[in-house]
Amino acid sequence: MNDQKQPKILIITTPIRHIPATFPPLGSLSIITVLHKAGFHDTEFYNIDYLRPEYADAINHIKESKPDILGISSVVSTAYEYSKKLSIDIKKVLPNTTMILGGNLGASAEIILNKTGVDFVCTGEGEVTILDFVECWMDAQSRDDFGRVKGLAYLDDNRNLIVTPFPDPIKADQVYDVDWSILDDLGHTEFFFPKWDNLRANDKGIIDPRSLEPHRAGKRSAVVSGSKGCVARCTFCHRWDQGIRYIPAPVIMKRIDFLIQNYNVGFIAFADENFGTDRKWLSHFTEEIKKRDILWQVGGMRVNTINPESIQKMKDAGCVYIQFGMESGSQKMLDIMEKVTKVEQNYNTIKWMTEKKIFTTVQLVIGMPGETPETIEETSNFTSYVVEQSPDADPNALSINFAQALPGTPLYEAARRKGKIGQTLDDEEDYLLKISDRDARDGETYVNLTDYPRLYLEKWRFDISNRTRHTYVQKWGLDRYYNIIMQSSRYKDLKERKAFEKMDSGYFADPARQSEVRLDGKYIPSPWSLLKQNRIGAASTFYPIFFWRTRHLALIYALLNSANKQGLKYGFNLLWEYLSWKMNSLLNRSIPSIPEYISLRKLIRKKSLPDISGDNPSMASLRKGR
What we know:
By secondary structure, this protein is an alpha/beta fold. A seven-stranded mixed beta sheet has the order 2-1-3-4-5-6-7, sandwiched between helices. The chain contains 27 helices and 15 strands. Strand 6 and strand 7 (161-163) form a beta hairpin.
């Protein structure tokens, strides 16, 4: 903190997945754009997530830059370990640099401020908070002066936690107003605007015949947002924004026109959480985008806002793919998640999408509190219905994730109240370290919130896939099933596979992702070759009839597959937990459970789950989530 007029600011990202994705760092770009517009021109961008430098090189780059303010973008809680290590090491070499961290990891502000080198946490919309923060930094005499900055958490001069009120949201037409020249100056444009031809062979969203039209050759793809936020408050959802803002259609079209003219864009991926809930907005949007003759896909839409007419209208305007957060085939689980949707709407959406010949991926979240064999059976019924609709449906393209308890969600708070996550700062940090750099599908780091042993959860994932494959084979035949596998980009020959892996960030947790298995030309691997490789998961994909007929051995298959992936010790722990649970069941001992499974938010509000007396009251707004 000092009184210089132009602080040197460096904004950095943290690695998100095992390889960088072509999804641009919209948050960081928006922050830098806002700072540049406000006259803070000495603001630079170091995109660690894209560059993937060696750790020592990243530290040296920051050290040589000598920023007065270092902004760390940590968009997910799984970035904690990297953010902690980097901030502590930077503080050692640049003790006078002020560090502010933004992104959803900020929901753990108390831990970050006490356990890392970070000085401030942005808890609000960064575009608003960052300007007030930098202006305050220039004349602040002590930490107490930052109390006037909204959307900030910090330790005052007496090391008391201060969390200021959330700022007012920015106007809709200013949401994600990005200056793309930032990427141009860094030489990153080619990566974030990839060639259409490279994507077309590997992206399941691009199977529409229009993608093969000659005039689309050589076009590029871009990621754009049409809105920010969501109308729902799912109890597992980890995000900051309250409510939803739709960017006016004329503003979006102006941005798209710029991308078409300057980057030869012919395909748009809309990265919204909640696309098109406002039907008036959607109607205006489709009318306008149709004039551009580009193809586009939607990253997130709700099943209760769609109908055959709107799907057809979107398709006519160039839409080739829509993702929905369906999550479950059980109404009970949808209510616990607070999806505010009906199972019938999931079924109807699949039916309409198939009729209109627009592709979608079924994404599931299993293992929420209240999950039972019966709710899994209901979900299996749903996924079976999905593959019965068309022989082109890929039964191995399900995305099945375990519910991951992330700070700032009712799921996380329920886990703490049930004793699944520790209640002290040290315990909570241990959990953040455990889930760092891990996906929700990773069984080893999953917190089991159900009333069943962890082995059951592994079995449930197997059961859903096994049942779905069987239904497909029964409906469309084994030859057609193998034809689907042969067409899958995940089982390409070795040369093609390597090209695919360079682009596969691992976003979808589908059963088909068996990176160790390669098809030999047009031949399915033999059972013996898979057995030698201990590839139980892959074997169940290639031999669906056998695994369906032996489904009574599913617990054993799940145990062997888990032990192979996570190690013998993990497998032994799974088995021991299961046997102990089984013994207790046989002896009619009660198994602790939540008395009534309703929305997790309601359970906490009704005190069905006890409060935690040691919690810092200043963290209440962040723990509650928005």
